[in-house]
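Internal ticket - ligand job 434, magnesium ion:
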Amino acid sequence: MVELHISEAKKAGESVTIKGWIYRKRVSGGIVFIILRDMSGVVQAAIKKDSVDEATWKAAEATTIESSVELSGTVVEDKRAPTGYEIKATSLKNVSVSEPYPITEYQSTELLLDKRHLWLRSQSMTAVMKLRSHFFRYAREFLDKQKFFEVTPPVITSAGGETGANLFEVNYFGKKAYLTESSQLYAEAMIYSLERVYSFVPSFRAEKSRTTKHLAEYWHLEPEMAYYNNEMNMELQEGLISHIAEKLAKEHQDELTVLNVDHKALGKIKPPFKRISYEDAIKILNEKGFKLKWGDDLGVEEERAITAEEDKPIFICNWPKEIKPFYMPINPKDPRTVVCSDMQAPHGHGEIIGGSERIWKYDELVERMHEVEKLKDVKFNMDNYSWWIDLRRYGSVPHSGFGMGMERVIKWMLNLDHIRDAIPFPRMANRLEP
Ligand code: 4AD
Ligand code: MG
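stdout (structure tokens):
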């Protein structure tokens, strides 16, 4: 008797033990048919009243959907079965008999969200969660190969690192603090010893807008590189995205098939990605019937229109300085703009990466922060930023970086309708449980 996983039960005649959960159960003429699932797949098992002992038969009768069980039996070939094999059971033990399972075939989206802790066992969520783990692994794998160090920034911060408009407040020993909205400023501090770093921790955005691409807590991959300009920054980004897509297409076709994702299309995501300027984007959109002025930001509809016919992501570069943050340098070729780029996913999945060069000279940074205060009618508490500005005084170097929202990438590549299904326990304006 060998203990193994379902996907390994492929030797006809072998006696095996499998620990799993009941996925389906059917009783017919002295035989209990079950479909058993474990982390590797599903297999059918037949428990015949006249070929098992009494305890096993009782257990087979008592078992219910989602009960945890230990099943032993002989592997037999069955061409019609999903794995090509079936188990003729010799013994079945209930580890824990499940109460009536609250999720049946057709359920509302709300119920599935309320029962998220159970819905995670569904075939589709299982496939997404397996793939999610691979997305994380391949992202790290790519950056490790490029000689990056992973660094760990604080999650509790004294000030915003981006727009500061959607911060979650925390009572920090009687002082106001915030959950981090971006780890960029901390990543910047670490390039002076490690040169190429990335942090990969959650960012928090108190986004009240209910859209299909906003989470209040999302996993944010933020690389920061000494001596990179934005062209090198974009090359790194397209390399990263292509590496993830290529690995998924090559190694994980089974899970992609469960989700109806065409692995061949993913396999075609290769550098270079198209680069257009913000100005071009406005022109293209106005030709499509939008009425945008120079300086307007792109909303969901605009993002959809500009990427509708694309099969690969595109970069939109050099945005107006009024709509981008305080750390981006003015573009010397067009001082109305800053040196930055956003990566837009194809088919309207929206912005997946925001990146830029960083102002690395002390005076220029202080001047730009004051300019942003006027342009946006905000007030920076300079005490909170002084350590970060200080970095410009001690051997500063040109540098660039970007932030990639992992759930946005997952939503796009797995063609999910909503970003909440890219993360096990979504945090959104109207949802904190489970
Ligand atoms: O464009 P953002 O706000 O840029 C930054 O935070 C920079 N400091 C990053 C950097 O340069 N280190 O956010 C970066 C990315 C977006 O492109 C998007 O993919 C994702 O983070 N993102 C969200 N993902 C899910 N839910 C939200 N509410 C998100 N807000 C941003
Ligand atoms: Mg952005």
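Auto-summary: The first strand starts at residue 2 and ends at 3. Residues 2-96 form a domain with the OB fold (Dihydrolipoamide Acetyltransferase, E2P) fold (CATH 2.40.50.140).
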